[in-house]
Write a structure and sequence with these properties.
alpha/beta; Rossmann fold; two-stranded parallel sheet; 7 helices; 4 strands; globular
C-alpha cells in the first residue's frame, strides 16, 4: 500500500509556553516577518480521513486554513491574550542554532502552502479559519490540557 503524505502548518506550543511562563524575555527564532501556515486539528483530522478513504496513492496534499499570518502577528496575538508583560526578542536563526540545532532553521522558515489540490481531489475544506481570530480559544484549550 502506498502512503499519502500530508503537509501541515506548525503548531505554536513554543510561543505559548514562553508567553505563559512569565519570564522577562520571550525569545522568538527568526525575524518575525516569516509566515507560518496554520490548520486546525479538526480540519487536519478530516484531511487525513479523506486522504485515507480516497483510494489515491503517492499523493502529497497541503492542508492549511488559507491564512498565512506572520510570526510577528501570531506572537503579538498570543502575548496580548496571555497578558504577557515581558520583552519579546527576535533571535537570529544562526544564533538560535547554537542552542536549538537544526530546529531553529525550521522555526525561521517562511512558508506558504496551497490547499487547492486537497480541495479538488479530496473535497477537503477547512471549517476553522484564522488562527489570529481564535487565539483566546486556542490558549484556553492549551491551558486546560496542561492541568
Amino acid at each position: 500500500m502506498a502512503m499519502l503524505t500530508l503537509r501541515t502548518g506548525f503548531s505554536t506550543p513554543v510561543l505559548r509556553n514562553g508567553a505563559l511562563d512569565g519570564g522577562p524575555v520571550l525569545q522568538v527564532v527568526g525575524p518575525g516577518d516569516n509566515h507560518w501556515p496554520m490548520v486546525h486539528v479538526d480540519d487536519l483530522a478530516e484531511g487525513y480521513r479523506l486522504a485515507a478513504e480516497c483510494g489515491l496513492s503517492s499523493e502529497i496534499f497541503n492542508l492549511g486554513d488559507g491564512a498565512t499570518p506572520k510570526v510577528r502577528q501570531m506572537v503579538a496575538a498570543i502575548i496580548e491574550t496571555a497578558g504577557y508583560e515581558g520583552r519579546v526578542e527576535f533571535v537570529p536563526e544562526r544564533e538560535a542554532e547554537r542552542s536549538m540545532g537544526a530546529f531553529a532553521e525550521a522555526l525561521a522558515l517562511d512558508l506558504a502552502i496551497d490547499s487547492r489540490k486537497a480541495s479538488r481531489l479530496l473535497a477537503w475544506q477547512p471549517r476553522h479559519r484564522g488562527f489570529l481570530a481564535d487565539v483566546p480559544t486556542y490558549l484556553a484549550a492549551w491551558k486546560a490540557a496542561q492541568d
